[in-house]
Amino acid sequence: MTGFLFKRLLQAAFVVMVVTLIVAWAVRLTGDPALMLTSGSANVTEADLARIREGLGLNEPFLVQYFNTLAGLFTWDFGRSFVGGTQVSLLIASALPATLALAFASMAVAILISIPLGIRAAVSRGKWADQLIRITSLIGLSFPNFWLATMLVLIFSITLRWLPPSGMSGWQSFIMPALTMGVILTATNVRLVRTTMLEVLQSQYIMVARAKGLSERTVLYKHALRNCAIPLITYMGLQFGGLLGGVVVVERVFNWPGMGSLAFDAVAARDYPVLQSVIMVLSLLIVSVNLLVDIAYGLVDPRIRTE
Amino acid sequence: MNRPQHPTSPPPLLTVEDLSVAFGQNTVIENLNFAVQPGRTLAIVGESGSGKSVASMSILRLADIAGARYASGRIMFQSAAGPVDLLTQSQEHMRKLRGREIAMIFQEPMTSLNPVFPIGDQIAEVLMLHEAMPRRAALAEAERLMSLVRLPDAGALLKRYPHQLSGGMRQRVMIAMALACRPKLLIADEPTTALDVTIQAQILTILKDLQRELGMGLIFITHDMGVVAEMADDVVVMWKGRKVEEGPVETLFAAPKHPYTRALLSAVPRLGAMTGEPLPKVSPLTVFDGEAPRILGEARVQDTARYEAPLLSVRDLSVRFDIRKDWLGRATHYCPAVSDVSLDIYPGETLALVGESGSGKSTIGRTIQQLQKAAAGEVLVEGRPMSAMSLADRQRLRQEIQYIFQDPFASLDPRKTVGQSIAEPIETHGLLAGRREIRSRVGDLLERVGLSADVAGRYPHQFSGGQRQRVCIARALASKPRLIIADEALSALDVSIQAQIINLFMDLQRDEGLAYLFISHDMAVVEKMSHRVAVLYLGQIVELGSRAQVFETPGHPYTQRLLSAVPVADPTRRPERTGLAGEIPSTTRRVGDAPALNKRIEIAPGHLVAAS
Fold first, then answer.
1. Is A205 on the interface with B (CB under 8 A)?
2. What global pTM score does this model have?
3. Structural domain count, chain A
4. Nearest Cβ partner of A212 from B115, B126, B163?
5. Which residue in A108, B177, B302, B434 has a CA-CA distance of 20 to 30 Å to B44?
6. pLDDT digits (tens, 9 = 90+) for B524-573
7. At what angle do helices A128-142 and A172-201 cross, to 10 degrees?
8. What ipTM was predicted for this assembly?
9. DSSP B2-28
C-alpha cells in the first residue's frame, strides 16, 4: 500500500506540473496584459507600458515566470491582482471555502438521493418503481443547469419567497445551488448505483446474508452497498472534477462568492494572476481528490489493501 | 452400525408434502414429498435442472426472491414455537427462522463470504441478530465455533478477510456460521463439490461429527453418489422436478428400482473397479432419457498405446509466477508452479496428471500448448526441442496439439454458431479450401461427437453443458490433432453425461490414434481411462507409473492419502479416515529460496516414486 501511494503521489505531482505549465502558457496566448490594461486610456507611451510590464514581472523569461508561479503554490504567494492590487492569495482564501462548501453540499445531495433510489430501482428491477426512477433520472439529466437554477429561483425565491435568491448567508442559501448541481449528478449516479447493485445482488454472499435471517435493509445497505463502493467512489471522484467546472455557471446565477465567480470576473477583466491561480488551485484540488479516491479503495476493499 | 429402518417415536423435523414450485409458466418441481428426521441425514440426489436446489431454497423461502410461486403443497417444520407451515409464513417470520432454526451451507465457498468484512464479524453477525449477544461476546463465541470446525489459530483468523483463506477454510467458516445458533435443520447444497478430495474428506468428517453432537437434521444436496454413500441415511432421487425414488441408502444402492436411479448408479465411476486390469476399459452405459433405459456402447479393452517413440516429452520443466515485486518492478516473491517435471506421452496413450489445486497440473498443460513460458527445461515433440523450432513449425504444433477446457460455455464464443467455431481452426490452419468442403467436414465432426450435423447453425446457449463439451471436442478434432490436452474437461458435467463423454474420448482414441494428456482431480475417472498416471504435489511429480502400479501399489504417502480421501460409492463400506488434517501449504517463496527437488527412485519397471 505504501509503495502504491508513493507511486500515485509522484503521478499526482507530475500531473500538477503539466497542468500548470499548460495554463501558464495558454494564458499568455491572449495578448500583452500591459496593452489590455491600458486599452481605452489615451497618451500611453512605450515607456509606460514597459513600466507596467516591469511592475507585473512580465519581462522575465517565461520559464522564470512559470517557476515563480509554481513556487507560489508552496509559499501561498500568487502575486497581486492586476485589478485593485489585492493579494491573489487573499482572494482565493475567501473564495475557496465557499466553493468547497457548495461542492460538498452538491455531492451530499447527489449521494443522499441517488443511493436509495438506485438501490430501490435495482431491487424492483423491471417493475414500475424501476421504470419510474429510470425515466425521472433521464429527465433530470436533460435539464441544463442554468435553466434549472433559474426555475428554482423563480419558484422558491420570487413566487414563494422561501429561500434567498442569491449570495451565501446561512444554510438556506445552500439549498438551491446545491440542488441544482446535485440533481444533475444524481441522474447519472442513480443509473450507476442500479447497475452495480444488480451485479452485486446476484452474488452468492447476498444469498448467504439472506439465509442468515438478516433484514432486507441490512442485506442491501450493509452487505451489498459496501461491495458497490469501488465503482461508485471511482465515478464520484471523476465527477468532482466536472463539478468544479460546472461551478462557474451555477455560482454566477446564484451570485455565489466562490472560485467560479472569481474566475469569471478574472476572465472579464483579463486579470491573469487571478485566473491562473484559480485554475492551478482547482486542478490541484482535482488531483488530490483523485488521490483520496485511491486511498479510499484500500479502506473500502481489503483485497486492495493487502496487495 | 444399526440404524432403525422406520423411526417411529419422534415426529419428522420437516415434512414436504405435495410441493409444486413454478417460475412464471415453468414448473420446476412437481408434487414433491419427503421427510427429514431429527439427527438423520437425507440426501437429495439429481442432476443439474432436477430441481434439487429449488427444493432447498423453497424450504428457506429464499426462492421467493427469484420469483418462485408455490402452486401447491405444505412444508411443515417443527419450530421451537411448535409446528408451522413454512409456505404460509410471512418473510418477516421466516427471517426469525433463517439462520436460527434452519441454516444453509452453499456450494461455492469462494463466493459465499462477503469479501469486504472480516470473517469473525460475519459469524458474529448471526449471533448478534438472533441471540441478541453484544459484539464482544459474539466474537468470543465465533472464535469458539471456528475451533469447533477445526480451524487452526481461530483467534487470529477472526480479523482475516475471506480472500486470505483457502477454499476449504472458507467452507469451514461457512459451517461455523451456519451452526452458530445450533439450528435444528441444516441444508447443505453441494458443500464439497468445489473442493479438492482431501479437503472434501475433512469437511464431510466435520459435518458428520457436528451433526452427531448437535442432533441436527441434515439435508444434503449433491450429484456425487460417492458422497451420498458416505453421508446419507436416506436418499431422495429427483429427476426433472419429480421424485423418482426414495429409501434408506443401503437399499437404494443395493437394489435401485427406478430406471433413472439404475442409470445414475451405473454411470458412477468407482475407485477400485479396475483392480487387476492392465489396460483401461470401455464399458457399456445405461442411458435413461424418459422412456425405457437403453444400453449404449460395448465392453472393450483400450489397447491403443504404442510404446515405441514418445510423441511428446517434457524434460526438467520449471515454470514460475512472480507474486510480489519491489517498486522498481523486480520480483521479490514467486510461486514455483512447476519444478523439474519430466514425462513422456506416447502415441495412442492417455497420460493422466492428477493432483489438487495448486499442484501445477494445468500449468504443465498450458506450457506444452505454448500458452505459458517455461523458466527452465524443454518440451520435445518427436525428439525435436520446441525452442529450436521455427515460428512456422511452432504454429503447426498449435494445430497438432489441441486443448479442451473445463468450462465448455466459457470456451465457446457466444456470438458464433457452433459450426463457425468448429470451422475456425480448419480455416486458420488452411486444412481445407472451399465452403462446401468445410461445411461437410463440420457436419462429419458433429456426428463424430454424437451430435447431429444440422445443429451447426445453433449458438452455444442453445445447448446443454454436455452437448457444449461435445462441441468443444469437435472443435479440437477439427484440426486433426495428435495430442489433446483435456484440462478438467469432465469436471463440470453431471455423472451420466460425464460417463458418455469418457466413452467418446476412448472411442476417438481408438479411431484416430489420439494421445491424451488428461488433467484431472477425479481419481475414479482417471483410473477408468488412463494408461499411465503422474501424481503431482506442489509442482513436482511425486509418483509416476502405469495405472495399475499407481492405483494398486501406490508408493508415495501423498498418493495413498489422495486415494483414501475419495468417497466410495458403497454405503456398506464407509471409511474411517485418519491423517487427513491440514491444508496444502502455501507455495509463495522469496526469490533465491528455491524449493527442494525430489529425487525419484524406480521401485518397479516404469514406476517412479519420490523419495522423501
1. yes
2. 0.83
3. 2
4. B126
5. B177
6. 899 999 999 999 998 999 999 999 999 999 999 999 988 988 888 888 88
7. 130
8. 0.81
9. ---SS--SSPPSEEEEEEEEEETTEEE
